Amino acid sequence: MNWITNFVRPKIRALVQADTPDDLWVKSPATGQMIFKKDLEKNMWVCPYSGHHMRISARKRLETLFDDGEFATVELPKTPVDPLKFKDLKRYVDRVKDADAKNEDKEAIIVAHGSMGGSPVVIAAFNFSYMGGSMGTAVGEGLLTAAKLAVVQQAPLLVIPASGGARMQQGILSLMQMPRSIIAVDMVKEAGLPYVVLLTDPTTGGVSASFAMLGDLQIAEPGAMIGFAGKRVIEETIREQLPEGFQTAEYLLEHGMLDMVVHRHEMRDTLIRVFGLLMHKDPAAPVVPLVEKKAEAPAVEEPVKSEAPEGLPID
Fold first, then answer.
1. 282: which of 51, 160, 168, 242 is 20 to 30 A away, CA to CA?
2. 268: how many CB neighbours lie within 10 A of its CB?
3. Residue 139 vs residue 302, higher pLDDT
4. Whether residues 95 and 32 fall in one domain
Protein backbone atom coordinates (compact mmCIF):
# COMPACT_ATOMS: atom_id res chain seq x y z
CA MET A 1 0.00 0.00 0.00
CA ASN A 2 1.35 3.44 -0.84
CA TRP A 3 0.21 7.05 -0.64
CA ILE A 4 -1.52 6.83 -4.08
CA THR A 5 -3.76 3.98 -2.92
CA ASN A 6 -4.37 5.39 0.56
CA PHE A 7 -4.80 9.07 -0.23
CA VAL A 8 -5.09 10.00 -3.94
CA ARG A 9 -7.50 7.28 -5.12
CA PRO A 10 -10.13 7.87 -2.36
CA LYS A 11 -10.07 11.60 -3.09
CA ILE A 12 -10.61 11.05 -6.82
CA ARG A 13 -13.39 8.50 -6.18
CA ALA A 14 -15.17 10.86 -3.78
CA LEU A 15 -14.90 13.72 -6.29
CA VAL A 16 -16.33 11.66 -9.16
CA GLN A 17 -19.15 10.19 -7.08
CA ALA A 18 -20.13 13.61 -5.76
CA ASP A 19 -20.51 15.07 -9.25
CA THR A 20 -22.18 12.07 -10.93
CA PRO A 21 -25.92 11.52 -10.27
CA ASP A 22 -27.07 8.01 -9.49
CA ASP A 23 -29.87 8.13 -12.07
CA LEU A 24 -27.85 9.40 -15.02
CA TRP A 25 -28.68 6.32 -17.11
CA VAL A 26 -31.88 4.30 -17.48
CA LYS A 27 -32.01 0.65 -18.54
CA SER A 28 -34.55 -0.15 -21.24
CA PRO A 29 -36.85 -2.98 -20.05
CA ALA A 30 -37.30 -4.12 -23.65
CA THR A 31 -33.71 -4.29 -24.91
CA GLY A 32 -31.62 -4.02 -21.75
CA GLN A 33 -29.63 -1.15 -23.27
CA MET A 34 -28.58 1.80 -21.15
CA ILE A 35 -30.10 5.11 -22.29
CA PHE A 36 -29.00 8.56 -21.24
CA LYS A 37 -31.83 9.85 -19.04
CA LYS A 38 -31.95 13.34 -20.59
CA ASP A 39 -32.27 11.82 -24.07
CA LEU A 40 -35.05 9.55 -22.79
CA GLU A 41 -36.94 12.49 -21.30
CA LYS A 42 -36.69 14.41 -24.59
CA ASN A 43 -38.08 11.34 -26.35
CA MET A 44 -41.07 11.26 -23.94
CA TRP A 45 -39.79 8.07 -22.25
CA VAL A 46 -39.94 6.02 -25.43
CA CYS A 47 -36.92 3.75 -26.07
CA PRO A 48 -35.16 5.14 -29.17
CA TYR A 49 -33.90 1.66 -30.13
CA SER A 50 -37.02 -0.49 -29.81
CA GLY A 51 -39.87 2.03 -29.57
CA HIS A 52 -40.89 0.53 -26.21
CA HIS A 53 -43.19 2.89 -24.30
CA MET A 54 -42.00 3.08 -20.71
CA ARG A 55 -44.35 3.79 -17.85
CA ILE A 56 -44.51 7.43 -16.80
CA SER A 57 -46.11 9.21 -13.88
CA ALA A 58 -49.54 10.77 -14.14
CA ARG A 59 -48.17 14.31 -13.91
CA LYS A 60 -45.61 13.74 -16.66
CA ARG A 61 -48.35 12.38 -18.88
CA LEU A 62 -50.56 15.39 -18.22
CA GLU A 63 -47.68 17.70 -19.12
CA THR A 64 -47.39 16.00 -22.52
CA LEU A 65 -51.09 16.46 -23.29
CA PHE A 66 -52.20 19.88 -22.04
CA ASP A 67 -51.32 23.09 -23.89
CA ASP A 68 -47.86 24.29 -22.80
CA GLY A 69 -47.91 21.55 -20.14
CA GLU A 70 -50.11 23.72 -17.91
CA PHE A 71 -53.09 22.37 -15.98
CA ALA A 72 -54.93 22.71 -12.68
CA THR A 73 -55.63 19.77 -10.40
CA VAL A 74 -58.85 19.23 -8.46
CA GLU A 75 -58.88 18.35 -4.76
CA LEU A 76 -60.72 15.07 -4.30
CA PRO A 77 -63.23 14.36 -1.51
CA LYS A 78 -61.72 12.79 1.60
CA THR A 79 -62.35 9.08 2.11
CA PRO A 80 -61.62 6.72 5.03
CA VAL A 81 -58.02 5.54 4.87
CA ASP A 82 -58.50 2.05 6.32
CA PRO A 83 -62.23 1.31 6.66
CA LEU A 84 -61.72 -2.45 7.22
CA LYS A 85 -58.64 -2.26 9.50
CA PHE A 86 -56.99 -4.62 7.03
CA LYS A 87 -53.72 -6.44 7.64
CA ASP A 88 -51.91 -9.10 5.63
CA LEU A 89 -48.12 -9.33 5.80
CA LYS A 90 -48.23 -5.63 6.61
CA ARG A 91 -50.85 -3.25 7.93
CA TYR A 92 -52.73 -1.43 5.18
CA VAL A 93 -52.20 1.95 6.85
CA ASP A 94 -48.44 1.34 6.72
CA ARG A 95 -48.65 0.53 2.99
CA VAL A 96 -50.50 3.80 2.46
CA LYS A 97 -47.84 5.74 4.39
CA ASP A 98 -45.08 4.17 2.27
CA ALA A 99 -46.93 5.06 -0.94
CA ASP A 100 -47.48 8.63 0.28
CA ALA A 101 -43.79 9.00 1.04
CA LYS A 102 -42.77 7.87 -2.46
CA ASN A 103 -45.30 9.93 -4.44
CA GLU A 104 -46.08 13.61 -4.79
CA ASP A 105 -49.80 12.87 -5.09
CA LYS A 106 -51.45 11.02 -2.24
CA GLU A 107 -53.70 8.75 -4.28
CA ALA A 108 -53.66 6.60 -7.38
CA ILE A 109 -55.60 9.12 -9.49
CA ILE A 110 -55.21 12.78 -10.46
CA VAL A 111 -58.11 14.84 -11.81
CA ALA A 112 -56.96 17.85 -13.84
CA HIS A 113 -58.46 20.34 -16.24
CA GLY A 114 -56.98 22.67 -18.80
CA SER A 115 -56.98 23.15 -22.55
CA MET A 116 -55.90 21.01 -25.47
CA GLY A 117 -55.69 22.79 -28.79
CA GLY A 118 -57.37 25.78 -27.15
CA SER A 119 -60.47 23.85 -26.03
CA PRO A 120 -61.29 22.78 -22.45
CA VAL A 121 -60.66 19.15 -21.48
CA VAL A 122 -60.96 17.24 -18.20
CA ILE A 123 -58.50 14.37 -17.62
CA ALA A 124 -58.49 11.69 -14.92
CA ALA A 125 -55.05 10.03 -14.98
CA PHE A 126 -53.92 7.01 -12.94
CA ASN A 127 -50.52 6.86 -11.26
CA PHE A 128 -49.25 3.27 -11.35
CA SER A 129 -46.42 4.01 -8.93
CA TYR A 130 -49.00 4.56 -6.17
CA MET A 131 -49.88 1.02 -5.03
CA GLY A 132 -50.06 -0.21 -8.62
CA GLY A 133 -52.74 2.34 -9.52
CA SER A 134 -55.24 0.19 -7.63
CA MET A 135 -58.85 1.37 -7.53
CA GLY A 136 -60.16 2.11 -4.05
CA THR A 137 -62.82 4.45 -2.71
CA ALA A 138 -60.68 7.51 -3.44
CA VAL A 139 -60.37 6.52 -7.10
CA GLY A 140 -64.14 6.10 -7.32
CA GLU A 141 -64.58 9.60 -5.89
CA GLY A 142 -62.01 10.88 -8.36
CA LEU A 143 -63.88 9.49 -11.37
CA LEU A 144 -67.18 10.94 -10.16
CA THR A 145 -65.49 14.30 -9.56
CA ALA A 146 -64.01 14.28 -13.06
CA ALA A 147 -67.38 13.44 -14.60
CA LYS A 148 -69.16 16.24 -12.71
CA LEU A 149 -66.45 18.73 -13.70
CA ALA A 150 -66.71 17.73 -17.37
CA VAL A 151 -70.48 18.27 -17.30
CA VAL A 152 -70.13 21.68 -15.61
CA GLN A 153 -67.46 22.82 -18.09
CA GLN A 154 -69.21 21.17 -21.05
CA ALA A 155 -65.86 19.58 -21.86
CA PRO A 156 -64.86 16.09 -23.01
CA LEU A 157 -63.61 13.63 -20.40
CA LEU A 158 -60.40 11.71 -21.01
CA VAL A 159 -59.57 8.86 -18.61
CA ILE A 160 -56.08 7.34 -18.64
CA PRO A 161 -56.01 4.08 -16.65
CA ALA A 162 -52.77 2.44 -15.55
CA SER A 163 -53.82 -0.04 -12.92
CA GLY A 164 -53.59 -3.58 -11.62
CA GLY A 165 -57.28 -3.54 -10.72
CA ALA A 166 -59.31 -3.10 -7.55
CA ARG A 167 -57.53 -2.41 -4.24
CA MET A 168 -58.30 -5.60 -2.42
CA GLN A 169 -57.20 -4.23 0.98
CA GLN A 170 -60.53 -2.39 0.90
CA GLY A 171 -62.50 -5.55 0.14
CA ILE A 172 -66.07 -5.11 -1.09
CA LEU A 173 -65.68 -1.32 -0.92
CA SER A 174 -63.10 -1.45 -3.72
CA LEU A 175 -65.35 -3.67 -5.86
CA MET A 176 -68.23 -1.22 -5.40
CA GLN A 177 -66.17 1.38 -7.25
CA MET A 178 -66.83 -0.55 -10.46
CA PRO A 179 -70.57 0.36 -10.63
CA ARG A 180 -69.75 3.85 -9.30
CA SER A 181 -67.38 4.37 -12.20
CA ILE A 182 -70.16 3.33 -14.60
CA ILE A 183 -72.37 6.03 -13.05
CA ALA A 184 -69.62 8.57 -13.78
CA VAL A 185 -69.43 7.45 -17.41
CA ASP A 186 -73.23 7.65 -17.80
CA MET A 187 -73.23 11.22 -16.44
CA VAL A 188 -70.88 12.33 -19.20
CA LYS A 189 -72.68 10.45 -21.98
CA GLU A 190 -76.13 11.67 -20.90
CA ALA A 191 -74.81 15.24 -21.16
CA GLY A 192 -73.88 14.51 -24.79
CA LEU A 193 -70.14 14.92 -24.13
CA PRO A 194 -67.32 12.72 -25.46
CA TYR A 195 -65.88 10.08 -23.15
CA VAL A 196 -62.52 8.83 -24.43
CA VAL A 197 -60.25 6.24 -22.80
CA LEU A 198 -56.48 6.12 -23.31
CA LEU A 199 -55.34 2.65 -22.23
CA THR A 200 -51.76 2.45 -20.99
CA ASP A 201 -49.56 -0.30 -19.59
CA PRO A 202 -51.01 -2.03 -17.65
CA THR A 203 -54.82 -1.88 -17.62
CA THR A 204 -56.14 -4.97 -15.88
CA GLY A 205 -58.56 -6.36 -13.29
CA GLY A 206 -61.63 -4.47 -12.16
CA VAL A 207 -60.51 -1.36 -14.02
CA SER A 208 -60.62 -3.07 -17.40
CA ALA A 209 -63.90 -4.75 -16.36
CA SER A 210 -65.63 -1.42 -15.79
CA PHE A 211 -65.07 2.12 -17.04
CA ALA A 212 -61.87 1.42 -19.00
CA MET A 213 -63.67 -0.41 -21.82
CA LEU A 214 -66.69 1.90 -22.20
CA GLY A 215 -65.17 4.81 -24.10
CA ASP A 216 -66.82 6.35 -27.13
CA LEU A 217 -63.34 5.87 -28.53
CA GLN A 218 -60.79 3.34 -27.24
CA ILE A 219 -57.17 4.39 -27.81
CA ALA A 220 -54.06 2.60 -26.53
CA GLU A 221 -50.31 3.07 -26.51
CA PRO A 222 -48.17 0.55 -28.41
CA GLY A 223 -47.35 -2.58 -26.45
CA ALA A 224 -49.68 -1.81 -23.55
CA MET A 225 -50.91 -4.88 -21.65
CA ILE A 226 -54.70 -4.82 -21.47
CA GLY A 227 -56.88 -7.56 -20.02
CA PHE A 228 -58.55 -8.90 -16.90
CA ALA A 229 -56.47 -11.74 -15.47
CA GLY A 230 -52.79 -12.27 -16.20
CA LYS A 231 -51.57 -14.53 -18.98
CA ARG A 232 -50.10 -17.10 -16.59
CA VAL A 233 -53.36 -17.35 -14.60
CA ILE A 234 -55.39 -17.84 -17.77
CA GLU A 235 -53.06 -20.53 -19.11
CA GLU A 236 -53.16 -22.42 -15.81
CA THR A 237 -56.95 -22.20 -15.76
CA ILE A 238 -57.71 -23.30 -19.34
CA ARG A 239 -54.57 -25.46 -19.59
CA GLU A 240 -53.78 -24.16 -23.04
CA GLN A 241 -51.00 -22.05 -24.52
CA LEU A 242 -52.16 -18.55 -25.38
CA PRO A 243 -51.16 -16.97 -28.70
CA GLU A 244 -48.09 -14.77 -29.02
CA GLY A 245 -48.71 -11.16 -28.05
CA PHE A 246 -51.93 -12.03 -26.23
CA GLN A 247 -53.38 -9.05 -24.27
CA THR A 248 -51.17 -6.50 -26.03
CA ALA A 249 -52.69 -3.38 -27.57
CA GLU A 250 -51.87 -4.59 -31.08
CA TYR A 251 -53.58 -7.95 -30.47
CA LEU A 252 -56.72 -6.25 -29.15
CA LEU A 253 -56.79 -3.85 -32.08
CA GLU A 254 -56.59 -6.75 -34.51
CA HIS A 255 -59.51 -8.47 -32.76
CA GLY A 256 -61.78 -5.42 -32.61
CA MET A 257 -61.40 -4.42 -28.94
CA LEU A 258 -59.68 -1.10 -29.69
CA ASP A 259 -60.21 1.69 -32.19
CA MET A 260 -56.63 2.95 -32.44
CA VAL A 261 -53.09 2.29 -31.25
CA VAL A 262 -51.24 5.60 -31.26
CA HIS A 263 -47.56 6.37 -30.64
CA ARG A 264 -46.92 8.65 -27.67
CA HIS A 265 -45.37 11.30 -29.92
CA GLU A 266 -48.63 11.54 -31.89
CA MET A 267 -51.05 11.15 -28.99
CA ARG A 268 -51.69 14.83 -28.25
CA ASP A 269 -52.39 15.77 -31.87
CA THR A 270 -54.62 12.72 -32.27
CA LEU A 271 -56.67 13.55 -29.18
CA ILE A 272 -57.06 17.19 -30.19
CA ARG A 273 -58.35 16.08 -33.59
CA VAL A 274 -60.73 13.55 -32.00
CA PHE A 275 -62.15 16.06 -29.51
CA GLY A 276 -62.58 18.61 -32.30
CA LEU A 277 -64.61 16.15 -34.35
CA LEU A 278 -66.74 14.97 -31.42
CA MET A 279 -67.41 18.40 -29.90
CA HIS A 280 -68.04 20.37 -33.09
CA LYS A 281 -70.78 18.44 -34.78
CA ASP A 282 -71.82 21.26 -37.11
CA PRO A 283 -70.46 21.13 -40.67
CA ALA A 284 -67.26 23.04 -41.29
CA ALA A 285 -68.77 24.95 -44.24
CA PRO A 286 -72.24 26.34 -45.03
CA VAL A 287 -74.63 23.77 -46.34
CA VAL A 288 -75.69 24.57 -49.91
CA PRO A 289 -79.33 23.59 -50.50
CA LEU A 290 -80.01 21.39 -53.44
CA VAL A 291 -82.23 23.06 -56.09
CA GLU A 292 -84.54 20.68 -57.83
CA LYS A 293 -84.53 21.04 -61.61
CA LYS A 294 -87.92 21.45 -63.20
CA ALA A 295 -88.85 18.53 -65.34
CA GLU A 296 -88.77 19.52 -68.99
CA ALA A 297 -91.65 18.47 -71.25
CA PRO A 298 -90.65 15.72 -73.64
CA ALA A 299 -89.99 16.94 -77.16
CA VAL A 300 -92.75 16.12 -79.64
CA GLU A 301 -91.42 14.53 -82.72
CA GLU A 302 -92.81 15.83 -86.03
CA PRO A 303 -94.45 13.21 -88.20
CA VAL A 304 -92.21 11.94 -90.91
CA LYS A 305 -93.64 12.34 -94.40
CA SER A 306 -93.33 9.16 -96.33
CA GLU A 307 -92.40 9.44 -99.96
CA ALA A 308 -93.72 7.01 -102.52
CA PRO A 309 -91.29 5.19 -104.76
CA GLU A 310 -90.63 6.79 -108.10
CA GLY A 311 -93.41 6.20 -110.59
CA LEU A 312 -96.10 5.43 -107.97
CA PRO A 313 -98.92 7.89 -107.17
CA ILE A 314 -99.27 9.18 -103.61
CA ASP A 315 -102.80 9.11 -102.14
1. 160
2. 17
3. 139
4. no
